[in-house]
Design brief:
By secondary structure, the chain is α/β, with parallel strands linked by helices. Helices cover 28% and strands 16% of the residues. The protein contains four helices and five strands, in the order ββαβαβαβα. A five-stranded parallel sheet has the order 1-5-4-2-3, covered by helices on one side. The N and C termini lie far apart (34 Å). This is Rhodanese-like domain-containing protein.
Length: 102
């Protein structure tokens, strides 16, 4: 299965209100800074907490550099969720000068 992927430069600024951002990093990474309005579900918790997500709403999946979010995106897509992986993750987000909150 091919994973849908996007880059920070391809995302509108600000992000659309109907886009859910799912951050799958660990707690300490989240605490250091995340995208405003994002939902935090560490990668290992995604299967147990998948019912917290709406499969019909486009979800942007984010991690540190894109590996964990790619795994989460692949799994969620197999479950029928409308997901896209953020290539480069939070490194790319911050590198592009996009805002983070702590």
């Amino acid at each position: 299965m091919e994973i849908a992927e996007t880059t920070v430069t391809d995302l509108p600024d600000p992000l659309p209100a109907d886009l859910v951002v799912l951050d799958v990093r660990e707690q300490h990474e989240w605490d250091a800074g995340h995208i405003e309005g994002a939902r935090h579900v560490p990668l290992g918790d995604v299967p147990a907490r998948v019912d917290e997500l709406d499969p019909t709403v486009r979800t942007l999946v984010v991690c540190h550099v894109g590996g964990r979010s790619a795994r989460a995106s692949a799994w969620l897509a197999q479950q029928g969720y409308d997901v896209v992986n953020l290539a480069g993750g939070m490194d790319a987000w911050q590198g592009a000068g996009r805002p983070v909150v702590t």
